[in-house]
Specification:
mainly alpha, Arc Repressor Mutant, subunit A, Four Helix Bundle (Hemerythrin (Met), subunit A), 2 domains
């Protein structure tokens, strides 16, 4: 084979590999979106054939995406049987929220100690957007979800701890998964949004212990609503 031919083949292999990787990510993003928004319910069987029809993907990227979701706790793959959405018990969900609570508390504590004035201004502006939502209508769950994630990510950025932030980031997908499988955001988002004000003031005052306590209580309140909404 000529040198040109070898380079061409190598280039085509790289393109094909990138295509497979992108397809795997595309399938993953679609499935995680359906899980987080409760289009797939607890315990529901997932069909690789149906996913392939929806995504025009082959079995390989679909299984890669499902394996990633299993590692994250969203699905269970049983060899020779198939795949199903996770169906955790109350204790498992409570344990998750306890872990989530502690991690958010730590990040809020670090944020209060390390935040900049510019970051604080950004956090206040974002909170103004959140409080501008018409919570009474019960029709803005998606808007609140997006802004709420940005709010907490700003606190994570203030903490200046990428190692902790990376491990905490996936908790929001799992929490939204549990919320939408149980009570739904409209049930509590107005009250939850108001709790942000006290967290902001603790961070503004550079009070790490108070910021931690308030952030933990914020997540604990969400856990209470989820538990209340579970069947």
């Amino acid at each position: 084979m000529s040198r040109y031919g070898a380079r061409f083949r190598s280039g085509m292999q790289a393109i094909e590999k990138a295509s497979r990787v992108n397809k795997k990510d595309e399938v993953y993003e679609l499935l995680v979106s359906r899980l987080v928004t409760a289009q797939y319910r607890f315990g529901q069987r997932l069909s690789v054939k149906e996913i392939a029809a929806d995504t025009d993907a082959s079995r390989q990227p679909i299984m890669a995406a499902l394996n990633r979701l299993e590692a994250e706790g969203f699905v269970r793959i049983i060899p020779q049987v198939g795949c199903a959405v996770a169906n955790p018990g109350r204790e498992e969900i409570a344990d998750f929220y306890l872990m989530f609570e502690r991690m958010e508390g730590l990040l809020a504590e670090l944020a209060a100690a390390r935040r900049t004035d510019a970051q604080l201004r950004d956090l206040r502006r974002l909170q103004d957007q959140i409080m501008g939502i018409d919570f009474a209508s019960g029709e803005h769950g998606s808007e609140y979800t997006l802004l709420n994630r940005r709010f907490h990510q700003l606190i994570h950025d203030m903490a200046q701890s990428p190692f902790v932030d990376e491990r905490a980031a996936s908790n929001f997908n799992m929490s939204d998964f549990f919320i939408n499988q149980s009570v739904g955001f409209p049930s509590f988002m107005g009250d939850a949004a108001k709790e942000h004000d006290d967290i902001i003031e603790a961070i503004a005052a550079k009070s790490p212990s108070r910021a931690r306590t308030l952030a933990e209580a914020h997540i604990a309140d969400i856990a209470h609503w989820v538990s209340k909404g579970l069947r």
